[in-house]
């Protein structure tokens, strides 16, 4: 299925806590694009299963939750604080490894890319930005702009640990680091649409880069390819 559309698409993949979400939001704000953090879809599925008293590792329960989300997506529900917890992140990659879950959410993501919703103020979106694990390779393989964002796992774990502590979660750094390594391995090793670097993606290593430098680098590429001002 192609994802070419009248409006441009920016696809961003990368590892957890690499800074891809921050980059995507900054680009979306600057360009007037609609933004979808596709990882929140999988986090939402995991949280919905847990709230129903189920086990995210139960494929049937995960698929049912994904199908419900596909039919009744409310972008505001993706701002639920429970989605940002360490538990949600841990189980997001578990449900994401279920082919039926990925299938249920594929059309949802592609639909957002091809027909991005209006911005919060009602202004029509000038394009779409999606970030995740398989956006550049599977969801939007025809996107004219692709980035892959990464950083050293220890750096990413430090960022995520700080974020979780700031949200009031009592968790040790070592646990965050271990969970991140497990998640990386699961995301890269799953059979369906594993996380990998698209041949035509611009790779950005944020280990020693500040946010402004990352955004400037990405924006320069966007302007070159899309002619955005």
TrEMBL record:
Matches recorded under Pfam families: Cytidylate_kin
Cellular compartments annotated: Cytoplasm
Stored SUPFAM superfamilies: P-loop containing nucleoside triphosphate hydrolases
Protein name, as recorded: Cytidylate kinase
Protein family (similarity comment): Belongs to the cytidylate kinase family. Type 1 subfamily.
Organism in which the protein naturally occurs: Micavibrio aeruginosavorus (strain ARL-13)
Matching NCBIfam families: cmk
InterPro entries: Cytidylate_kin, Cytidylate_kinase_dom, P-loop_NTPase
Gene Ontology biological process: pyrimidine nucleotide metabolic process
One GO cellular component term: cytoplasm
UniProt keyword annotations, A-Z: ATP-binding, Cytoplasm, Kinase, Nucleotide-binding, Transferase
EC number(s) given by UniProt: 2.7.4.25
Leader peptide range in chain numbering: none
Primary gene name: cmk
Class of enzymatic activity (EC top level): transferase
């Amino acid at each position: 299925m192609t994802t070419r559309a009248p409006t441009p698409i920016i696809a961003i993949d990368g590892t957890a806590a690499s800074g891809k979400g921050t980059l995507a939001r900054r680009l979306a704000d600057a360009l007037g694009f609609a933004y979808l953090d596709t990882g929140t879809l999988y986090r939402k599925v995991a949280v919905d299963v847990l709230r129903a008293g189920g086990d995210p590792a139960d494929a049937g329960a995960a698929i049912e939750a994904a199908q419900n989300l596909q039919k009744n997506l409310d972008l505001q529900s993706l701002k639920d604080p429970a989605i940002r917890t360490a538990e949600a992140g841990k189980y997001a990659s578990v449900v994401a490894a279920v082919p039926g879950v990925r299938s249920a959410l594929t059309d949802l993501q592609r639909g957002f890319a091809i027909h991005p919703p209006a911005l919060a103020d009602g202004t029509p979106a000038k394009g779409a930005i999606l970030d995740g694990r398989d956006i550049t390779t599977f969801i939007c393989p025809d996107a004219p702009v692709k980035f892959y964002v990464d950083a050293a796992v220890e750096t990413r774990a430090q960022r995520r640990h700080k974020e979780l502590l700031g949200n009031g979660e009592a968790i040790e750094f070592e646990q965050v680091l271990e969970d991140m390594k497990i998640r990386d391995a699961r995301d890269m090793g799953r059979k369906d649409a594993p996380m990998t670097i698209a041949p035509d993606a611009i790779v950005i290593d944020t280990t020693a880069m500040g946010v402004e430098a990352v955004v400037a680098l990405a924006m320069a590429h966007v302007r070159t390819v899309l002619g955005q001002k």
